[in-house]
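Write out this protein's structure.
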Amino acid sequence: MTDVNTRATQCRMFEDFETGTVFDLGERTVSKEEIIAFASLYDPQPFHLDEEAGNQSILGGLAASGWHTSSMMMRMFYDALLTYSSSLGAPGIDRVSWLKPVRAGDRLSGSMKVLETRASNSKPELGFVRFLMRAENQHGVPVYEQTFSMMFGKRDAG
């Protein structure tokens, strides 16, 4: 277990994000059971719940809800980057694109690219970092993209 002092020295602050930097979010394998469980609770469209309905849909098979994909990516982002950061939340999302269906057995690889950074004009204690989040499946095919900004605390609030 990491103690508070160690975590504080490892904490990624606004100043630690540089335009062009790419962060690896790791990998995650998607199961049929979790596709159906998520869809049952939050997006119960037939092609997310049943293989036959998926086969007869434009998706061509059982596919994860786009919101499920977004949620998995958020978890990967948190585990790889946010957990040891000065994150102060996000003002919103610019764009979300579900590029290809995510299927049971797919292994998603995630990455985050820093598109730009800017210090807040009205709140000197924070800055904004704009990201491009991407996921590819095990074949290297892009399946998901999102652009958004997040707020991070600054070391130097002056």
